Amino acid sequence: MTGTPACDNMAPVQRTRPYANDFGPFDGRIWLNTAHQGPLPRIASEAAMVALEEKTRPHLLRDESFFAVPKRLRAALGKLIGVHPDDIILANSTTYGLDLLANAIPWQSGDEVLLVDGDFPADVFPWLLLGTKGVSVRFIKPQEMWLKPQDVAQAISSRTRLLCATWVNSFNGFAIDMAAIGRVCRDNNVIFVLNASQALGARVLDLRNEPVDAITCCGYKWLCGPYATGFCWLSSTLRESLIPLHAYWLAMQAGKPLNQMRDYSLRGDLGARTWDVFCSANFLNFVPWTAAVEYLLQAGPERVAAYDQALVTQLLATLHEDHFELVSPRTEPHRSTLIVLRPRRHQDVEAWQRRLLQSGLDVAVREGNLRISPHLHNTSEDIAKLSEALSMN
Predict the structure, then answer these.
(1) How far apart are alpha carbons 204 and 178 in whole angstroms?
(2) Domain limits of the chain?
(3) 177-183 long-range contacts, Cβ below 8 Å, gap at least 24?
């Protein structure tokens, strides 16, 4: 299978050394912008080199790899979120799953979609095109910095068909109570679609215990994969209600050899594979992403989440509040791994970013605020250097 040497020989994560030893090199810089791009672990880089070598020398590619590569990725993602691998839909982005639903749900004229005011644009644009089908979009304006169950309960009307929301807000770092909101939706027969891109990989998710109808997530942030990777999961009830949009030949070929392809029968037994992004073998992206997800699984999702939160706690404990207002939450349950800081003098945000960049600290500016997002490639020493830089006059 493509990538087998790098993936199968992956050594167990050593608990006696920092996770940071499994990443980089970073050329002396400190990457604190996982919410934009998560770095590949070295084991994933090695897997990518194997895939690149096989594409460079195509005689190394075997027909079986076209089925084995997506199968292995499904297995890793299924284990990560507690679902059967056959229920994973392979994608190239978060938007893929949202676009799939926007186009495949059998809408009725008069249906309504609820969105969250201030959410990430990926959660908004796919639904705006539904006006041609007589479907309206309405925005919930949360009473606080995060969406509460009561906000949803008050907003739902007899026309509401679906709610789309983000687990962790990309702009303020607040996490919602997914379970409580899901129960409100379920009690009102509303489809609950959750964007997990700023959470999964830094937070634990077990869909066996969550009242969620659909999850969509990119692979290149907290899941540490290449760009243009993602997946989604749909409940079986929701998935079976969808109108098929495409018939991809390689999906139809599943279980049959590539030397027997002139059977043009449309298959109805493919389940989630029906909805996969085209070219689901995608050696150069999916092979290293599989290695990255398997690395996170070996590290242990609970341990990774605890490690990330320890970094957040360290930074918040040393925050120079004369310089910054903390926009993101300080404590659980709404705290995430996104630390959002507003300079006391708002015009200083880009100056602060430049100062940090000059000190070798890479952070983001979003909506006039500094956004800092450490992950397991960072160390306590990294956070100490950041704290020192943020305390400078």
Answers:
(1) 12
(2) 65-296, 301-390
(3) 177/148, 177/149, 177/333, 178/210, 178/212, 179/209, 179/210, 179/211, 180/149, 181/147, 181/148, 181/149, 181/152, 182/210, 182/211, 182/212, 183/149, 183/211
Contact 231, 272 (CB under 8 A): no
CA distances from residue 48 to 168, 286, 294 in whole angstroms, order as listed: 29, 9, 14
**Bridge-based pairing state of the strands 230-234 and 191-195:** unpaired
Whole-prediction pTM = 0.93
Residue 311's SS3 state is helix
Q: Tokens in use for 117?
A: 């005011």
Question: Which tens digits make up the pLDDT trace of 16-61?
Answer: 468 999 999 999 999 999 999 999 999 999 999 999 999 999 999 8
User: Which residues have C-beta within 8 Å of that of residue 289, sequence separation ≥ 6?
Assistant: 44, 73, 219, 223, 225, 226, 229
User: What is the residue type of 44?
Assistant: A
Partner residues linked to 362 by β-bridges: 31
**pLDDT attached to residue 260:** 82
Structure tokens belonging to residue 291: 């290695």
Question: Considering only the top CATH level, what class is 301-390?
Answer: alpha beta
Rounded to whole angstroms, how far apart are CA atoms 104 and 324?
A: 45
Phi, psi of 108 (to 5 degrees): -115, 145
The token pair that represents 277 in the structure block = 């992004």
Q: Output the CATH code of domain 65-296.
A: 3.40.640.10
